[in-house]
């Protein structure tokens, strides 16, 4: 449409003072032409739409704040090391047994893997049995001994003095790092250029 074909008189007619008066007259007569029930229904619909929009905006704001709080809490999460119990090497346990046997000759001390047994058929050897047990509980650096079974007295089945120990160590490891998603092959491969061929 060319500028010459544009009618300025029509534009002036729509933007003039008479147009404003016509709009006011139309709005004043709307209740008579449309009806009050239709206006009320329209008002209710507009109010419901406005309430829904306000509710949605408030919920979105709350969700954003909650997400920020969760992110802050995740950043404050401490790095906790992983503690596990590991069996002491059989060679270390056997070496301790070989050193302890001459000291506590009145009791029988044996090793089986990370297990130590201290036994005696006579209750008269209780003092050596007690000392050997205390020595085994603190036998090596970092040792943690767990009593698997203990029997003292004539009521014991095979030996009057009998104890079985499991020797372990506390192992402290770094927490496992979170696995990051692998980059896609498209992003990992740089785009090829044909500048040399041009």
Structural commentary:
It is a single chain. The chain is of the alpha+beta class. The protein has two domains: 15-71, no CATH class; 86-173, Gyrase A, domain 2 (2-Layer Sandwich). The protein contains six helices and five strands, in the order αααβαββαββα. The protein has helices at 8-15, 17-34, 36-75, 90-103, 126-137, 185-188, and strands spanning 82-87, 108-112, 115-120, 143-152, 161-173. Strands 1, 2, 3, 4 and 5 form a five-stranded antiparallel sheet that branches. The radius of gyration is 45 Å and the shape is rod-shaped. Mean pLDDT is 77; it is low at 178-189 and 191-198.
Q: Could you say how many structural domains there are in total?
A: 2
Count every helix, treating DSSP H or I runs of 4 or more residues as helices: 6
What's the level 1 CATH class of the largest domain?
A: Alpha Beta
Sheet bearing the most strands, described? 5 strands, antiparallel
**Envelope shape:** rod-shaped
Question: How many β-strand runs?
Answer: 5
| Range of strand content | 15-25%
CATH topology of the largest domain: Gyrase A, domain 2
**What's the overall average pLDDT, rounded?**
77
Calculate Rg over CA atoms: 45 Å
CATH architecture of the largest domain: 2-Layer Sandwich
**Low-confidence runs (pLDDT<50, min 5 residues)?**
178-189, 191-198
What is the structural class?
A: alpha+beta
What is the terminal-to-terminal distance?
46 Å
Give the SSE string: HHHEHEEHEEH
């Amino acid at each position: 449409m060319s500028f010459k074909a544009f009618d300025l008189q029509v534009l002036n007619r729509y933007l003039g003072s008479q147009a404003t008066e016509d709009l006011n007259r139309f709005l004043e007569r709307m209740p008579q032409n449309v009806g009050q029930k239709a206006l009320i229904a329209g008002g209710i619909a507009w109010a419901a739409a406005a309430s829904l929009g306000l509710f949605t905006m408030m919920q979105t704001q709350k969700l954003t704040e909650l997400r920020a709080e969760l992110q802050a809490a995740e950043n404050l999460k401490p790095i906790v090391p992983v503690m596990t119990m590991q069996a002491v090497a059989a060679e270390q346990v056997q070496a301790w047994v070989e050193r302890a046997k001459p000291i506590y000759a009145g009791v029988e001390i044996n090793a089986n893997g990370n297990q130590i047994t201290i036994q005696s058929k006579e209750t008269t050897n209780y003092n050596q049995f007690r000392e050997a047990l205390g020595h085994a509980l603190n036998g090596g650096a970092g040792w943690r001994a767990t009593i698997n079974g203990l029997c003292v007295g004539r009521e014991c089945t095979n030996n009057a003095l009998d104890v079985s120990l499991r020797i372990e160590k506390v192992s402290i490891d770094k927490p496992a790092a979170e696995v990051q998603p692998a980059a896609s092959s498209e992003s990992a491969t740089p785009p090829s250029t044909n500048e040399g061929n041009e």
